[in-house]
Amino acid sequence: MCEATNYSPEEVTMRWLLDGKRIDSPRQSNNGYFNKEIYYRIQLGKNNLPSQISCEVQHETLNSPIKTTDEVKVERDCKRSCHFGIIGVLVLLLVTALPALWYFMKRESQRFQVGHIHSIETADEKVTMYCAASNCPEDVRVTWVITENGGEKTEISDIKKERDEEAVLIVSQDYTVETDRSHEDKLYHAISTLSFTPIVSRHKDMEVSCTYHCNRRSQEKRLKYSFHFKKPERSGPVQLSLGDNGDVLCSVSLQNFYPKDIKIKWSHGVGDFQNIETIRETFTKNDNFKFNVRSECRVPGHLLKDQGYRVRAKWSHKNETGQEEVSITAPITCNRR
Questions:
Q1: Could you give the 3-state DSSP secondary structure of residue 16?
Q2: pTM given for the model
Q3: Domains and CATH numbers, the chain
Q4: Half-sphere exposure of 311 (CA within 13 A, CB side)
């Protein structure tokens, strides 16, 4: 799955590349405003298994496309490997039954399979979990069960309403489930995603299960998930620099916090602080999905004449008990000659 989030305007082009060569995107999904996902299912039975798969995103705000590449790694199913090993031992005893053996191996290679649940923390402060199923002789049904910290369970079942419907979107009060379906060679495939905004009091230590139902059979996958808020780390004191017009540019940098939602307010004065407008806030994201921010304000240079004049940065950020507020104050003085 390749996901692009938080872009504007809405028009965007996303493509898959196998070993650097462009291919068609057989399945696409629009998960809300200014978000888009595309999916690609690699056929493991083919001999031309790619060594790399890339996702390329083109948007009018980009000078050149963004491309992310991953190595293709196949995790073999233990039961399947062991089963084929036994078949290899018995093949000498079953020479006369080669046609039946070939049919059995073909049927076994196309058996109903469900992958593991994977989780992604996205830039919009949501968590998306997805689970894929393949090779079902009839259309599949999927059920998600979310068990929160206190043991409260939420069950969401996905049932197609129309026979020709390829995607089903279910939005509950706190969770969104979307299932995209495809079929080829009389076999059905699906990928289902569960999205939600994490809350520490409910999702600090939770368990999620995804069950696919196919042809009177069910396969369940489980995932234990832990979510913790990360408090901001201050990289240093308020930084001061002299502007072109004699004013003073004040800035503060905070690092490695999650989620992104943070409020920074500036104030200044002598004893009694007055609010100052923030002129710029710049966010960046780390590789571990934590955020950094640099906030700036500007104060008039003539105020430097006042003894005891100070500027203060105050920020609030969510933690496990609610809101945490921290402030730092820096004196601004003028060397008089």
A1: strand
A2: 0.53
A3: 1-74 (2.60.40.10), 78-107 (no CATH), 110-228 (2.60.40.10), 233-331 (2.60.40.10)
A4: 25
